[in-house]
Amino acid sequence: QYSFHKAEYSVQKIPHFAGNPLIEALPLLGSEDEVLKGLLSLPHFDHEQRKWADHERFQMIYQLENFMLPFVRHIQLVYGVDSMMRQGYVGRIPHSIKSSEIFKKLHEKSLLKPAVDITPQVSGALIGMSGMGKTTTLKRFLATIPEVIHHPNYGVFQIPYLHIETPYDGASVKGLAQSIFRKVD
Fold first, then answer.
1. Beta-bridge partner residues of 181
2. pLDDT tens, 23-50?
3. Is the overall model pTM greater than 0.85, yes or no?
């Protein structure tokens, strides 16, 4: 039994996103306050707990594992990733002439031995000290997006994102490829 989300399309205000079902099927990102509420995670707290014995209060420390108080940088990260995701679908409308031309060019380029020209890609690097909320922010944002979206009118299954951990040795192309295939499978 496979689980997927049936595409629900929403109107896009951004002109170059409008009319693209792959973008229209992605959930709309809310205001900064809505994004903040989605990232915020506070532990349960009752003032009565202050009167508890130390050994009881100590047991409550582990509730802080999921604690997150988002900063502006976390909200900016969510907006940036959402923007990159949508931009990546521009020009990739299922069964369109423009999309077919893109796939044809990609195929032709793959047949050439040397890389004649390089197509710019929308990408980014997320670098920072441990514990700053990079992974937590990404995971919480991506949890709002279906892993697989089915477009019955187009006969297409869309995978909006893949979250792949870096291979243990940090350089194994084979390990990375295996991780991708396992995740898609």
1. none
2. 999 999 999 999 999 999 999 889 999 9
3. no
